Structure formats: C-alpha cells, structure tokens
C-alpha cells in the first residue's frame, strides 16, 4: 500500500510516522519551501488523548524523549485588569501537557520522506482504486490513498467536499513569544488567565520544557535533531473584531493598545522575538458534507478546523492520525479492505470532529474582548 499525504503539519506528520512504523510506504508533500519557512512555533496544550495519539504514532524508543520535551500545563484561570488586579475567574480549564509545535514537528519529521515546495493543486481518481495527486510543479504521484492533511484552506477538500468551506469568525489576534526569564516568572498569576483591556484581551501561557529539547535529543535519541529552544511565554492579544495591523509590526500593534498597562506586561511584549510574532485570524471548518469512502480522505484542520480557544485542534488532528493509522494497518494486514478502513475512519472522525468544532466555538466568547 502506498499513501500520499498532503501537508506536513502535526496531523500529516503523525500519520506518516505511524505508517512508517508499521512498514507502510508513506510520502509527505508540503507546500512551504522549507519546514521552517514561516512562524509555527507556538505552544499547544495536549490533553491525555492527544498525547496518547502522538505516542501511538511514534516509535516507542522515542517515548522517553517525548516525555522530556513537554511541560506541565497550569494556569491560574483568572480574569485580571491591565494592572494585574483580579476581577473575576475564567472557571475550570485545560490541564494537560504543553508542547512546542515547532519542536514536536521536528520530532515527527525524523526519518520521514518529506517533499517541500510541493503544493498540491488537485487530484484525479484512476481506475483500480488508485489516485493521482497533482502539484503546482513536477509530475503527478500515484498512490492507493491520498490524505488531505493540508490545513484550513485544503486543496484536497476543495475537490472532495467542495461545499465545505472555512467560516471566518471575524476574530483576529496577534501572537508572539518572549524568553521566560526570572523577571517574567513573576507574572505567573497571569499565566493561563485573561487580561481584559480596553477592547482587547491578552492571554499568556508559559512553555517550560522539562529538558531543553536539543539537549534531551542528544542524550535520549541521538538520531533526532531538535531545535535549540528555551523556555518562553506565549502571549496572544485578541483584537477588536476584524482588527488589522495596518503598517505596524505585531509588537507595535499590541503595544499601541497597552497604554497604562502594568510595566511588566508591556516589557514582556517589548522583549518578544520579532521572528516569532504574527497576526492570525480565527476561521473554522465545520464538517457536514459526506462523500462515499474511496482513495481520498481528509484529516485535521482540513475537515474540522477549530478555534484555538477550544484548545482541541491539534488534539483532534493527532487523534485522526492515530485512528487512520490503525485502520490502515488493518487494511495492510488484510483484515479489511482499504475502502472499508477509510470508511470506518471517516465514520468516527466526522462525529468527534464536529463535536470538537462546536466545543471550540462555545469557548470563544469567554476570550473575545467585551465591546
Ligand atoms: C495560536 C494557536 C494556538 C493553538 N493552540 C492549540 C492548543 O493548545 N491545543 C490544540 O489542540 N490545538 C491548538 N491549536 C490548533 C492547532 O494548531 C491546529 O488545529 C493543528 O495544528 C492542525 O494540524 P493540521 O496538521 O491539521 O494542519 P496544519 O498544522 O495547518 O498543517 C497543514 C500543512 O499543510 C500545508 N499545506 C497547505 N496547503 C497545501 C497544499 N496545497 N499542498 C501541500 N501542503 C499544503 C501547510 O503549509 C501546513 O504545513 C492552536 C492554533 C493556533 C493558531
């Protein structure tokens, strides 16, 4: 069995690792010219099921490394004013494990065949259950299964489920990260909390690695090369509806809305890494339209993109990868046919994927700024 995967995000890479571990041929095609071509290094909270899914896809010899490069999620879950006075509570929230997306991606990439600069433009279903994936450059690639793990604007989805499209919530946010020094440790009350400003909300989260990733890889799995990343604070400022940066940098845009704020909060934004800050919009994809199972399927944000406020997009993409991996292993071992395996994956994925999107939309109002 040969599987082509469009998209080297967490979902596509986890699936490719899982298939590689089972001896199933899988190649990943990524549109970006390089894995590090754009900002991707934010912190993710993985729930126990998401972490288990990653473990399921990774060779067991790397499990100790995975345990070493994560951190424990914690947060005060308060609502604070810009001077850091407590004015309310966010209520029970997410506990779990924090992981840096950039670091996890590097672990997942190890040993895989990833073709970068390979933007999928479409596909054609051939006879005998095969599929041809087409790219902006280069020859088509024939395989038994094409998996669209190509994110919220999925080119695979555009053909497979053309009536399913992203919805823009209108919510925009600026995200950045700042090295977690002794000084910023003093802001711990604000970690996992919401700072409610004038028309904006600021959210902070700490990424404290149990072991610095590069050192952990050198010690626990020398065949893996991980980036040299130190502890940091991820900050995200949710802007008024449809907010934009204008001519400002992300940092300038955030600081322009922080007059009179606590000096340590301003310093945190001032000292952030300009290469790791950007403006993002919140768009969701609600899975609805079904198709007959065949040699093309979707996973992750390509079919169920959530709002980051739900904290479940990566968890769900990883769950997809692990589930599809298990279904495809059954097909490779002759316990079911390929179409039956893909159909079983889609049956389960559609149900929990729709729930994940709804959950994330329910969580959104607690974080968006009050007018
Ligand atoms: C700031 C922020 C915080 C978040 N926090 C959390 C959290 O705490 N917990 C959580 O569970 N989730 C969180 N999420 C959501 C999570 O990051 C995503 O749901 C998850 O990364 C989706 O993975 P994916 O593999 O489906 O897609 P993506 O990560 O979007 O990967 C898709 C890949 O496909 C590539 N691609 C696109 N088009 C093509 C094409 N035509 N051909 C080839 N390749 C293509 C893209 O370049 C990309 O590499 C957060 C998201 C953001 C933005």
Question: Can you give me a brief rundown of this structure?
Answer:
The protein has helices spanning 10-21, 48-57, 63-69, 101-109, 155-160, 182-185, 213-220, 250-255, 263-270, 301-304, 313-332, 338-363; strands at 2-6, 25-29, 43-46, 71-73, 78-80, 86-89, 96-100, 114-115, 120-125, 131-135, 141-143, 145-148, 167-179, 194-196, 201-207, 232-238, 278-284, 296-298. It is of the alpha/beta class and 371 residues long. β1, α1 and β2 form a beta-alpha-beta unit.
Describe the 3D structure.
There is one protein chain. This protein has helices at 10-21, 48-57, 63-69, 101-109, 155-160, 182-185, 213-220, 250-255, 263-270, 301-304, 313-332, 338-363, and strands at 2-6, 25-29, 43-46, 71-73, 78-80, 86-89, 96-100, 114-115, 120-125, 131-135, 141-143, 145-148, 167-179, 194-196, 201-207, 232-238, 278-284, 296-298. It has 371 residues and is α/β, with parallel strands linked by helices. The protein has a single domain (2-366), classed as FAD/NAD(P)-binding domain. The strands form 4 sheets. A 7-stranded mixed beta sheet has the order 6-5-14-15-16-13-17. It has a 5-stranded parallel beta sheet with strand order 8-2-1-12-18. A 3-stranded antiparallel beta sheet has the order 3-7-4. Helix 3 (63-69) runs antiparallel to helix 7 (213-220). Flavin-adenine dinucleotide is lined by residues 6-12, 29-32, 42, 44-45, 119-120, 149-151, 155, 175, 280, 300-302, 308, 311-315, 317. Keywords: FAD, Flavoprotein, Monooxygenase, Oxidoreductase. Residues 289-337 form the FAD-binding domain. InterPro entries: FAD-bd, FAD/NAD-bd_sf. Pfam families: FAD_binding_3.
């Amino acid at each position: 069995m040969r599987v082509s995967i469009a998209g080297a995000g967490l979902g596509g890479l986890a699936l490719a690792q899982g298939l590689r571990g089972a001896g199933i041929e899988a190649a990943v095609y990524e549109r970006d010219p390089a894995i590090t071509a754009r900002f991707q290094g934010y912190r993710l909270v993985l729930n126990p099921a998401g972490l288990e899914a990653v473990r399921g896809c990774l060779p067991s010899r790397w499990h100790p490394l995975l345990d070493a490069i994560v951190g424990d999620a914690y947060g005060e879950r308060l609502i604070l004013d810009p001077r850091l006075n407590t004015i309310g509570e966010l209520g029970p929230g997410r506990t779990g494990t924090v992981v840096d997306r950039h670091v996890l991606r590097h672990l997942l990439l190890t040993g895989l065949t990833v073709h970068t600069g390979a933007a999928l433009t479409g596909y054609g279903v051939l006879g005998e259950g095969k599929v041809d994936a087409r790219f902006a450059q280069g020859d088509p690639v024939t395989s038994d299964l094409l998996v669209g793990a190509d994110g919220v604007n999925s080119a695979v989805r555009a053909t497979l489920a053309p009536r399913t499209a992203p919805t823009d919530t209108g919510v925009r946010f600026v995200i950045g990260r700042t090295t977690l020094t002794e000084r910023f440790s003093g802001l711990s009350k604000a970690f996992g909390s919401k700072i409610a400003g004038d028309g904006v909300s600021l959210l902070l989260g700490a990424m404290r690695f149990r072991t610095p990733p590069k050192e952990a890889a050198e010690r626990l799995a020398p065949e893996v090369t991980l980036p040299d990343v130190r502890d940091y604070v991820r900050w995200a400022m949710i802007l008024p509806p449809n907010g934009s940066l204008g001519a400002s940098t992300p940092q300038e845009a955030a600081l322009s809305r922080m007059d009179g704020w606590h000096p340590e909060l301003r310093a945190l934004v001032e000292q952030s890494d300009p290469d790791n800050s950007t403006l993002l919009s919140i768009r969701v994809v609600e899975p609805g339209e079904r198709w007959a199972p065949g040699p093309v399927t979707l996973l992750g944000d390509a079919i169920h993109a959530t709002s980051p406020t739900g904290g479940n997009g990566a968890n769900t993409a990883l769950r997809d990868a692990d589930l599809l991996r298990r279904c495809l292993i059954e097909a490779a071992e002759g316990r079911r046919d390929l179409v039956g395996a893909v159909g079983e994956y889609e049956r389960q994925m559609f149900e929990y994927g729709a729930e994940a999107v709804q959950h994330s939309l329910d969580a959104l109002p607690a974080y968006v700024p009050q007018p």
